[in-house]
Amino acid sequence: MLLEVGDYSCQHKDSFISIASLERIRMRILLVRPNSKIVKIPPPLGLMYLASFIRQKGFSDVKIIDARCLRLNNERLKQEIREFDPQLVGIASLHFESPEAHSIAKISKTLNIKCAVVLGGPYTSSDYFRALEDESVDYAVIGEGEESFSELIRCIKEGRGLDNLSGVAYRNNDRGSEKNRQTFWR
Fold this sequence. Notes:
This protein has helices at 45-56, 67-70, 74-84, 98-111, 122-133, 146-158, and strands at residues 17-20, 29-33, 61-66, 88-92, 116-120, 139-141, 168-172, 176-179. By secondary structure, the protein is an alpha/beta fold. The chain has a single domain, classed as Cobalamin-binding domain (Rossmann fold, 3-Layer(aba) Sandwich). Strands 1-3-2-4-5-6-7-8 form an 8-stranded mixed beta sheet, with helices on both faces.
């Protein structure tokens, strides 16, 4: 199913949301909303917006898995991640969903140790040090993450350093976690 504005649906347990576009920058990017105990299931607007934004920035192979809507268990999620074989997995998480987010990170790294794992959302914005204690997590996007996430993906794809990238925390193996300055709107 192609995702267009206003075209989100979660009626079929076997349907996943894909965003397909013209070939510009090849990098398989998977965005995941963890399953949780939340009963109401609104569309993952944040991930949909993020997918649209990075698509506009030239990244064409983006898929969203809404594990909450589909009520996916870890085995089914692992199967979906394996089939898509992403180079980068982005996980948006509320604080109380952090165990599920870390579980997805571990699954992603177990399937492909070279896959970059990025956590974002309210959880990492409020507690990025804790998020980065997990060795399965490579980066944490802090605050409004569209620009930071897009630039992080570009840095990873091009093999550039993160020295001038704001809004991203990461583990530096010899110095613990590092946070680059966040730029706020005025």
